[in-house]
Amino acid sequence: MPKHSKRFLALLEKVDRNKYYKPEEAIPLLKELATAKFPETVECAIKLNVDPRKADQMVRGTCLLPYGTGKKVKVLVLTPGEGEKEALDAGADYVGFKEYIDKINQGWLDFDVVVTTPEAMKEVSKLGKILGPRGLMPSPKTGTVTKDIGRVVKELKKGRIEFKVDKTGNIHAPIGKVTFSESELIENFYAFLNEVLNARPSGVKGNYIEKITLSTTMGPGLKIDLNYAIEEARRRKT
After folding, report:
1. pTM across the whole model
2. Handedness of CA 80, 85, 86, 90 (dihedral sign)
3. β-pairing verdict for 75-78 and 94-96
4. CA nearest to 221, candidates 1, 15, 4
5. How many angstroms separate the CA atoms of 11 and 24, rounded?
6. What is the C-alpha separation between 183 and 170, in angstroms, rounded?
7. Do 56 and 122 touch, CB atoms closer than 8 A?
8. Cα gap 22→222, rounded to integer Å
9. Which among 40, 50, 26, 23 is positioned nearest to 194, based on CA atoms?
10. Distance, C-alpha 31 to centroid of its chain
11. Which residue ranges in the chain fall short of pLDDT 50?
C-alpha cells in the first residue's frame, strides 16, 4: 500500500468511499478537495471491459472538449509547402518540413502535437522511434494525418484530446482544470464519456464500461454512478 501524506488523508476523510457519486455531485466536491498550490487538473479514468491485445477490441479516438483542457497546446505542422498558410492562419505554433524534421532528429521536442499530411508521412514516419514512445507520432486514427490541416489545428487549439485504452483496459484523460466552473467541467465530462461510448468496439460482449473515476491531480478519486452517468450522457447527446 502506498503511503499518503497527512494532507491527502485529511482530504480522504471528506470522501464517502462507499458512495457512487453522480458527476453533478462529484465535480463540486473535487473542486473543494483541490487544495494544492497550483490549478489542479480534473482527470477522468474509465475502466473498460476490453482486451487490448485483440485488434478488434482496441479503443482509441478523439474528443473536442467544449471548454478545452485549460492547457495551452503547442502544435507542430509538418508539411512540405502544401497547407502552410492554412496551418498558420489556424494558429499552429510551428509550420515547416525538412528544417523541423532535422531539429527533431537533433533532440528538439518543444511541441505537444504533430499534424501532417498523408503525402508527407513517408518522411515523417522515419521519426517513429523518436515520436512514437512519447505519444507524439501523427496517425490517421487520431486525425492528425489529414488533408484538412486548418480544421484539425483549430480543434487542437480549442481543446481536442486523444484517448487510447492502455494495456490494463483503462482510459485516462484530462477534462479541465479546477478553476473551470462546475457546469464547464460537467459538460466536458459528458462530451468525453459520449466519445468513449461511441468508440465501443463491435467485438465487445456484455457491459462495455466497468468503472468511472474522477479525481484531481493531487486529490483522491471519486467513484461515479455508472448507470446514471451513461444515461445522462446519452440524454445530453440527443
Report:
1. 0.83
2. positive
3. parallel
4. 15
5. 19
6. 25
7. no
8. 10
9. 23
10. 20
11. none
